[in-house]
Amino acid sequence: MPLSFSLDHAGPLTWTVEDAAIVLQAIAGHDASDPASARCPVADYRAALAGGNLRGLRLGVARAMFERDCVGSEEMLSAFDESVGVLRELGASIAEIELPPLALYNATAYLIARSEGFAIHEKALRERPQDYGALARDRLTIGAYVRASDMVQAMRRRQMLVEATTAAMGGVDAILLPTAPDPAPRLGDLAPYFGNQRPTYMRPFNLTGQPALSVCNGFDNAGLPLSLQIVGRCFDEAMVLRIGHAYERTTPWRGRRPQLA
Hints:
The chain is α/β, with parallel strands linked by helices. Helix content is about 45%, strand content about 10%.
């Protein structure tokens, strides 16, 4: 079910990076029925995973986003630094890069997502509001109050952020960030997790249209997963998968299964 015409990023949810490459291979490609679908050649994603070292790659760490804009938890920051060390040992060089403030990405994406979300769901919200959960209903209905002038300014700001992000990536093959400032929540705690008090680090790349991969990079004291986010240039999913696969093969996290009650 769509949420936002221009921000939605549909992708596989899999146990391993190799599984993600296999599924992406099946779903990627031009969709003639979608006017926003790009006509770009599809890489051989599984073949891109070959080889375990990352020698010659240059990875950018956007540290201000999680040490200044929304400070990550100690557990998340520690896991991130260890992940960067693993990637360095695999041959990648690490460079600090500066991205625009997280709040600027979030405010821009917020206006666009609320406006487009209401445009998509307006009829159903009016006729069958009870079909929506309270959180989804509240978030979608806000879009009815976004002014056209604000939407126009958000689209202009979006282009500026795309250009700034592209410029920041000029000397690197991918960006490294935590996925979120805190460990993954339990299902009952999802509402505050998607609030504005502790925003995740994912939304900027919904806005810019770049491919991103989230891989487990540890667990907190309660056994809830932590995660590393790898962000590539537009249409360079193969690079993102290559880095994620190399990290995953070198670390033990995929061998740990949750205890189900």
